[in-house]
Records
---
Amino acid sequence: MPSNTLSVTDDRTGRTYTFPIEDGTVRAADFRRIKEKDDDFGLMLYDPAFMNTASCRSNITFIDGDRGILEYRGYPIEQLAEHCTFLEVAYLVLFGKLPNSKELDNWVFEITHHTMLHESTKTFMEGFRYDAHPMSMLISTVAALASVYPQASHVQDPDNRLLQIKRLIAKMPSIAAMSYRRSLGFPYVYPDNDLSYTENFMNMLWKMVEPKYAANPILARALEVLFILHADHEQNCSTSAMRAVGSALTSPYLCVASAASALSGPLHGGANEEVIRMLDEIPNMAAIPAYIQNVKAGKGRLMGFGHRVYKNYDPRAALIKKIADQVFGVTGPNPKLDIALELERIALQDEYFIARKLYPNVDFYSGLIYQAIGFKPEMFTVLFAIPRTVGWLAQWQEMITDPEQKITRPRQIYTGPRALKRLVPLAERDMEAAKV
Ligand SMILES: CC(C)(COP(=O)(O)OP(=O)(O)OC[C@H]1O[C@@H](n2cnc3c(N)ncnc32)[C@H](O)[C@@H]1OP(=O)(O)O)[C@@H](O)C(=O)NCCC(=O)NCCS
């Protein structure tokens, strides 16, 4: 009868150690028992970039990267994208169950009634340079909310946590819209409680002098689906940042600012902006093979391709590709879509991409849709941060309430000098330098 254990022999000492295997995992701390001498620190595991280390137990999001499967709380992303609103999915991701009508109405009411920003936020916004990137404005402004809500630092109080969760989900679109209007020099638009989450966001972005903003229902639904697809993605770079910063019991506003900072990098949420820049660099179909050749030669990457976890088609990219047709039906065709489709077709037949299992990821087509809806590329990562706030907060809450979690503190392998050197006083160092 095979036992659910791992036996390891240390060839330095000939000793064998046996560790339990649970959920296909061994505990790294067990390896500390492996010592050459009694006063050794014990064996560490070296895993730069956490390529094979589980940092937590989580029951929020399931990904099977080899099969291209994504589920929130056990529901396939395809079903959620077809049948739910974003706030319904947000409820599911946060509370672990789909709401009934009464729960949903109450939840929507609560979020809708927290969308206003403190009036001083306007003055804060005025401090940014006219050309500030909207993502920088979003990150700084959400961090500044920690000063507006100092009581948010009581993170062990569940009621207090829930209040901050509602505020953050409600206010992220308001901050995002304000940063957008600031960059255009337009007056800010207040939230409209009659509208849905995405319609209200569009209202705050684009309402001009009309008495009531009416969003195009196809575009509003497309944005809603994009928000659903971006709501969570388990332990990615920004979520890990959220958990790491949150593990110090930091204010959730500062945790979200940290997570959003991680998201802004071009290898993470910034990739959708890079995809559009890449497509701009390819003038026509005939230029695609040469572009791919350059990528294969190591001159840049095919942005929107490849993923740490997905070694198959990203299921979110497949859904986004489907809604692209509906959006372009309203906005007119985007010639860049043809270039993107052809890039994908050629890449998926190319040995370089096949061998490395590089497929389009969520960012490959999302930028094209955002652009068609009317967003500038600088806003794309902001559009990622708004729905991902839900995932960050669900993961933060899970981390805070997990009795196994502690302040995040990885180990290192020290490679620098030890304290065997004599400290040379500054005057002596100057004399040495003068001799050269
Ligand atoms: C997402 C990403 C950071 C994952 O990186 P990773 O898991 O660390 O994978 P690696 O960087 O080790 O890449 C593995 C191999 O594929 C290649 N590769 C990965 N993504 C590539 C891309 N987009 N274009 C060309 N080659 C790529 C790497 O050069 C490497 O090749 P090598 O083994 O010959 O050195 C990476 O695929 C990437 O940079 N993609 C483009 C940015 C992007 O779209 N990000 C959004 C993610 S949702």
---
Amino acid sequence: MEKPVKILGFVGSLRKDSYNKALMRAAVELTPEDAKIEVFDLEGIPPFNQDLERQTPKLVKDFKAKIRKADAILIASPEYNYSVPGVLKNAIDWASRPYGDNAFEGKPVAIMSASVGSLGGARAQYHLRQSFVFLDMRPLNRPEVMMPFAQDNVDANGNVTNEQTKRLIRELLEALVQWTRKLKAKPQ
Ligand SMILES: Cc1cc2nc3c(=O)[nH]c(=O)nc-3n(C[C@H](O)[C@H](O)[C@H](O)COP(=O)(O)O)c2cc1C
């Protein structure tokens, strides 16, 4: 039996009752048998300042070490003003620096998003994909997990109730595991 694929998850919302945290919680519950998800909390990462990028804060050091140890990355994020929330972009910027020490290099990555709007965070997902080019990551294309009208699809306990979304999350994780194994098998 192959070793389980180690997935590091993080969420681009710090909100206690975040719908995107609910997506990540659902992903942990729906993790395939041949994978493990560890969730890293972005709370407390300071604003990035390039003057200080070589004085890496402990939390950022931990974040980068966990990214490096992971076989794959899973991001759940809201869309803020048609784009990526500052909290998430800030964490990504930290983990990509200093130049030449990008922790995301070559990592397979999958995205989920939830929003109260009708597009489910699609625009933020495509902006994230643009950053993946410079980060030299290996994004998974399908399925796309975008949960619109999140307020109607998450219950008071923070559980995703929408069966289609849960099925898509499961499919996303299976595809991410398969994609990660495929990339590992191929000499880069
Ligand atoms: C600063 C800000 C900007 C937002 N911009 C968008 C947007 O562009 N598109 C959208 O669908 N929802 C937008 N929203 C609404 C979010 O979908 C909603 O707040 C959602 O609950 C955030 O995700 P969370 O529950 O994981 O925190 C915005 C919310 C905030 C606070």
---
Amino acid sequence: MRIVVSGVNPTDWKARAGAGAGRPTPFPEVVPNQDGAGVVDAVGEGVDPARVGQRVWLYLAAFGNPYGTAAEYSVVPQERAVPLPDGVDFDLGANLGVPALTAHRCLYADGPVDGRTVLVAGGAGAVGHFAIELARAAGATVIATVSSPEKAALATAAGAHHVVNYRSGDPAGRIRAAAPDGVDRIVEVALADNLALDVAVAAPHASIVTYAADAKQPTLTVRDLMTRNLVLRFMMLYTVPPDALARAVADVSAALAAGSLTPLPAHRFTLGDAARAHDAVQGGAVGKVLIDV
Ligand SMILES: NC(=O)c1ccc[n+]([C@@H]2O[C@H](COP(=O)([O-])OP(=O)(O)OC[C@H]3O[C@@H](n4cnc5c(N)ncnc54)[C@H](OP(=O)(O)O)[C@@H]3O)[C@@H](O)[C@H]2O)c1
């Protein structure tokens, strides 16, 4: 791969800062960053030579592989280089990997979402953004929570039908007003903070799918969860079952080709400033941190 744009996610600075410490790595040195977009420069044995020159987006480039995307060139297994449809630029390609595939799994692990109501907590975040876009494109009614007018504008632009500030007033009441029968699927970024809210707005048989781990631990209200047969699901992209990952890649590609996905506002860095790019993500940049290679 010749990398054109590298996308930075929280997982990249966490891994670089030692989140995987204690787990043995077979590599003496690794290049960071899972996501990116570029052009196939050369192919290995068994790969269709016609792929040379193909524009692609990359996912999991640095997973079990020393060649992440913060470099001029990378080497990845062929399935992790996915063709970019005509007219889709490298920036959008570099937005996709971790956030869009995570959003897809959170939405679909418990079945289709068309005709359902989906609550996306933190709708202006990278995963939240693609959860809104994928759910809306699939025919769901989408409610997003945010903490500010700036983030409300992002969630609305992504297509959320209802946007609720979770830090003021009565968020459960406002979500209930938008979804009187309750929400069917909750894509959750802060389980400990939001579990009580989630339980208050969940429909019977709803799934609460959490993909982020912070230091704070949730308090489980088991009877509340049990009486409505709620599902509490945990999701980690690196260990999603292979068939579900393949389906996520196919569905994200289809949504991309259909024009249903958009990039977040970009914060751009040069490759020489890759360390500052990681710091920006760690500092909670709103939007997408990209490295121009
Ligand atoms: N399990 C996985 O495979 C996986 C995959 C992707 C990401 N992640 C993790 O998920 C987290 C988010 O990733 P990201 O790339 O989407 O980050 P991001 O772009 O920084 O977005 C995080 C969003 O969460 C919102 N948020 C924080 N606390 C909240 C709360 N109590 N209620 C509602 N929203 C809240 C933030 O907005 P406000 O602070 O304004 O509310 C922000 O919009 C990171 O910890 C990342 O490591 C895990």
---
Amino acid sequence: MRTLISGGTIVTAEGSYPADVLVDGERIVQIGQGLAATVSADETIDASGRYVIPGGIDVHTHMELPFGGTFAKDTFETGTRAAAFGGTTTVVDFAVQSKGKSLREGLDAWHAKAEGNAVIDYGFHMIMSDVTDASLAEMDQLVAEGIPDFKLFTAYPGVFYSDDGAIFRAMQRTAKNGGLIMMHAENGLAIDVIAADTVAAGTDPIGHGLARYSGLEGEATSRVIRLAEAAKVPVYIVHLSAREALDAVRMARDEGLPTFAETCPQYLFLSLDDLGHGFEGAKFVCSPPLRTEDHQPELWKGLVKDDLQVVSTDHCPFDFHGQKDLGKDDFRKIPNGLPGVEDRMDLLHDGGVVAGRISKERWVEITSTAPARLFGMYPRKGTISVGTDADIVVYDPNRKRTISAKTHHMAVDYSCYEGRSVQGAADVVMSRGSVVVRSGEFIGRRGAGQFLKRATADYARMA
Ligand SMILES: [Zn+2]
């Protein structure tokens, strides 16, 4: 099967230019102008007036994550399908090691969830919630199996939390096996004390935002960066939300440390105010919490200056009715997480490129190329060039649409962006040479997504 994508403007992190793209089987085999006159193809996709971009890569999703006695609603089938609708063709999800269990058991469980269900390619990071001699030894094996990143938490005492010694041991091991440490950095011990005081004064969701001080994200971020420095290991801060945390990352990067960080659309477009309005605010409960609006311009600055390299979603959807209401009488019991995997590309295009904050090339970089580089998928994923996987999106930068739970494809009963109009939408989405979404219709296949065995990256050279 040969497909010609003709007449579009190729946009990569490096630049933009008009050219046709020829796909043969699963790969891009030729790029050039006027290919229609010289090559034969089984199908031609007209991309005139539109961008031809590498498919989005979302390196932070939680399909079917168990949390607070329930599970995130999207399965690998529904979640990856929603991702595809939004122009994302690769997700990296978090397999979870439960306390007292091995990494292997957690990894096997995640393979079982994804295999035969995902409609686009996927990889895994490993969440470590129990650092022991045995789990430390398992880390090396996981790196060899294409799972080279390990996420640890300074938050959620009693669940995912690791103390500094445990984190440091995992860091030392990773320094030897060449992998990457990912950190959820909030001071969970202090936050639990503050949250207990806060709930005594009021049980509404706003308490969730008020209790999780931004300064305590800054403190934990600074601490884990210094632990990583001592262990001589690269560190990646997940879902950075606060100016104080960005300051810590910026300082480390200015020192030349291999410190990396992502933020998420919710921290760029939503704020603490959304946590108000009584229990409606439960729709916006995630950790770290939404911050006051004054953090947003700082995060944009971080993206412009490359102190933040990636925007991922932390997609972790819970229904408002039947799941979020577990915390009706105590905001601490509201499952933490928001839906987002479907809307990331469009929100960033609209609020970033159309709004004049970033170039379209930078938009591609933070949503696809940089995640591919940092997470060992480049150049197979994350760019448009000969020999790479044909994960391609024909993107209309002018089409406007309104985000709504009525029309989205995520398996969740609300949208954080209900009624918001965005400019820019994916018209055709191709995963390894097969069209999976066209004109708002899913034509892919459940189970077509493959597990991505990822390599370690040369983090030091990317610092
Ligand atoms: Zn997460």
